[in-house]
Please model this.
Amino acid sequence: MKPVDLPQMRTPGAPALSPDGATAVVAVTRPDLDTDAYTAQLWLVPTDGSRPPTQLTRGWHDSAPRFSPDGRWLAFLRRDDPKAKAQLFVLPMAGGEARKLTDEPLGVGAPDWAPDSSALAFSARVPHESRYGTDPDAEPARRLTELFNRVDGLGFRRDRPAQLFTVTLDGDVARVTDGPDDHGDPRYSPDGTWLTFTAPPSADGTAVDVCVIRPDGSERRTLTDGTLAAVLPRFTPDGDAVVFAAAPAGVVLRNETLWSVPLAGGPARPLLPPADFHLAMLTGDLDVHPDGVLFMNEQRGAVQLLQVPFDGSAPTVLVDGPRQVVGFAQAAGVLVTTVATPADWGEVYAGERRLTAFSRDFPALEQVELTAAAPDGYPVHGWIVRPATEGPHPVLLMIHGGPYAQYGWRLFDEAQVYAGGGYAVVYGNPRGSSGYGEAHGEPIRGNVGEVSATDLLALLDAALKEPGLDASRVGVLGGSHGGFMTTWLAAHHGHRFRAAVSERAVNAIDSFSGSSDIGWYFADSLYTGDFAAQSPLTYADRIDIPMLIIHSEQDWRCPVEQAYRLFVALKRRNAAPVELLLFPGEGHELSRTGRPSHRVQRFDAILDWFGRHL
Model:
């Protein structure tokens, strides 16, 4: 894979399933270099495999398909061009054109159907009347009174809160909620008399509660107690309770596990042991069926699909193995999943039968499992992706962000591009990562750099014992927490590496705590104690290897001052080459969702840097 091959990444999302279980619909997204944006269309997939998938829609960006309970309609989100906001459309499944139901100025979120198929609920951000016009530089000043006032990739929160709405098939829109806080992920009760949703108990905190409200906006109640950060609320089939995923509010290195709370009132209780089960990051979802809750669980680099009984007894594993469930749907006894593997970007399955071949032309390099032992004997799990050519190959140690996240069993553009460029890529999940239980994450708290480095170097040493890897030519790279660790390793173990690429990193915890959108609680929870002693920037005078620093100008998660402080410190010292690559118009998620042209430029710059210095 070369950087310009990004458009080959045809990635299917979570499937929708018709009520009779006969037909799945899935959105397939790919980067488009000509328009420098992402395009997506809906595909129709017969679940019995009797016919190949066919393209159902041809909009610029069609996503989030939802079948109506009566099977007559397919709701979905459409953006008519790369700059348009997503609006809600419905398509008659008997034939005919899609019809637009909304025209919200900032777009709408994924919808949920009323049980009688007469209406849909959705969330949409409502802009303040004086903002988000044609000249943002002429807007009035913002008066900020809360710590939690902005979010990376979104911007300021209080002048465009998300509200709940309903819309009929005739396009009659009614607003359900009001107030300054965000309201998200609405879902109807089985009888259609309630909506459940999430909302914070206060603006200045990290807690998110599960709430309910009548579709006409009356009888709003909060079901949880303000101690959890909840997502994905769903009514149980009898309508007597709401299940949801949550972790303790304001605490990092904790699992986002499955909970239930009674509609009539009472304490929430976990349905899975909180220390052992964790909702999959980024694409995680859950849904309810008569036999229990379907829950996507991280497990040693895999993402399983579990069925969890409502009484909290032991879950049943429905999908397992060295792969990752991306999404799922179940109806009429048929289970359809979208699953990514080390050989493809994702395909749609009915049971174990693969129904699609969206990645059929992609020549993936093999992902080989590796287990190392840290000096204390602790196992460190990871992988190697090698070039197809003969070695010895230079080596890149690649470190994930989070830190409570996981690399895993799936095709990964980063590993494929660097291996395609001639490097053996070593990556894994040291202590501090998710997917191995909270006990695996906890050891780094208050000593992030030192503990993480121990495991990462153990993984690297185990990889270097493999044939065809050149231990004299090793580079290190990573983003966010991975950038933190790249700078840390360059300072404390620089003799192990010939060059480094530190990307969107936390380098100085003190300024991060006051400038990041989440730093005001994240730093205290993860680093604790002496911020200076744990900051990679403190040890910049020890860095003697070439370092490329990559950052986005609009990154509010790890603000750009983190990059500038490290760049200035290394440039003034002048002990080794250092360069700063800044991307305009991008936030923290550049490497995953940034402009396709910027993603190509980023890959080219990293390959150029290691080409010069390895």
